[in-house]
Amino acid sequence: MAWTLDDFDYPLPQELIAQTPLARRTDSRLLQVGPPLTDLQFSDLPSLLGPGDLLIFNDTRVIHARLFGTKATGGQIEVMIERAVGSHEALAQIRASKSPKPGSRLLLEGALEVDVLGRAGEFFHLRFPADEDLVVLLERHGRLPLPPYIERAAGDTDESRYQTVFARNPGSVAAPTAGLHFDDALLANLAGRGVNSAFVTLNVGAGTFQPVRVHDLSEHRMHTEAYFVPQATVDAIAAAKAAGHRVVCVGTTSMRALESAAHDGALKAGEAESDLFILPGYRFQVADALITNFHLPKSTLLMLVSAFAGMDTIRRAYAHAIERRYRFFSYGDAMFLTRTPA
User: What phi, psi does 293 have (nearest 5°)?
Assistant: First the structure.
């Protein structure tokens, strides 16, 4: 079937876009997508899992990827780091009245002199001072990059709440938001019930917020993101499946990492780049269930969950969530999906 962008549109009241985190991570709601549709709290998650089930988490950490500054001409700019390229260089998006030219210099946050080396597609190739590692410089001078639909600047609360409690590998410019619902107590509860955990790393790029610009989705090309799947995770998945237990991805980023690593058939450990674009009809290789937030209209993430659970199922679930006033997007509520055969 030829899918178009309009197939993945839905009307969302603006007031349902969560602007702040709830008091506690597990205070969020959890929609179990059946049939039937069941309204739960996220703290009810252990009741949906059994001993031996395996949760796959993305342990990426959000870096201070947003910087403000000026061009040599004095013009104001905003820089969003897309990814590091080695220890002192990065690809970045730049917002300015006029794009900076290759060979020019930027002054960011009044402290960092950064050279514009050139362009790499839609991104600018930047070189930062070599006296310290790029991530260290960004943590000191940059700002936490909240998503564009959160209409406020990042505050002190976001420094902790826009990170998962298990974040450890810095490199993302956006949080793997399904993981934000877990706290240490819930993780301990799950472990005590015999639910196992394993980790992948997928560094979320700023491209995740870029709109799909083509009507015919066969013409869309995904942005690339770096991922790493450890051998221990491959072994844990094999053991769970051999024993008849479920593999449950926490978030679309965990799923994209695993599906990319299994794209040739067998799941392989290693580090690579993913540009996997998942539409309905895709045959999933690894995950049996998915915990995920509610995604933007016309987004590639909405397309992924529609492929996983079925178009009609997702449409019913989203209509139900809007009617019941669930909170949407990064700081919003979650859903528990089971894989539907393609």
Answer: -80, 180
Q: Are 261 and 272 in contact (CB under 8 A)?
A: yes
Residue 264 to residues 54, 280, 283, 289, 297, Cα–Cα distance (Å): 22, 19, 12, 21, 30
CA distances from 226 to 42, 171, 189, 256 (A): 29, 9, 31, 11
35-40 contacts: CB < 8 A, separation 24 or more? 37/316, 37/317, 37/320, 39/324
pLDDT value of position 143: 96
- As given in the structure block, the two tokens for residue 173 are 């410019």
Q: What is the pLDDT of residue 265?
A: 86
Superfamily designation of domain 66-141: QueA-like (2.40.10.240)
What pLDDT, in 10s, does the model give residues 309-327? 999 999 999 999 999 999 9
Sign of CA dihedral 215, 338, 273, 161: positive
Q: Is the pLDDT of residue 206 over 80?
A: no
**92: nearest Cα among 77, 76, 72:** 77
Which pair of tokens denotes residue 69? 């500054």
Tally: H helices and E strands in the chain: 7, 17
Each residue of 119-177: pLDDT tens digit? 988 899 999 999 899 999 999 999 999 999 999 999 999 999 999 999 999 999 999 99
Q: Where are the domains of the chain?
A: 5-62+157-338, 66-141
In this structure, the number of other CB atoms found within 10 A of the CB of residue 136 comes to 12
Provide the terminal-to-terminal Cα distance of the chain, rounded to the nearest Å. 12
Tell me if the domain spanning 5-62+157-338 has CATH number 3.40.190.10.
no
Q: Whole-angstrom Cα distance, residue 310 to residue 48?
A: 20
Chain centre distance of CA 118:
28
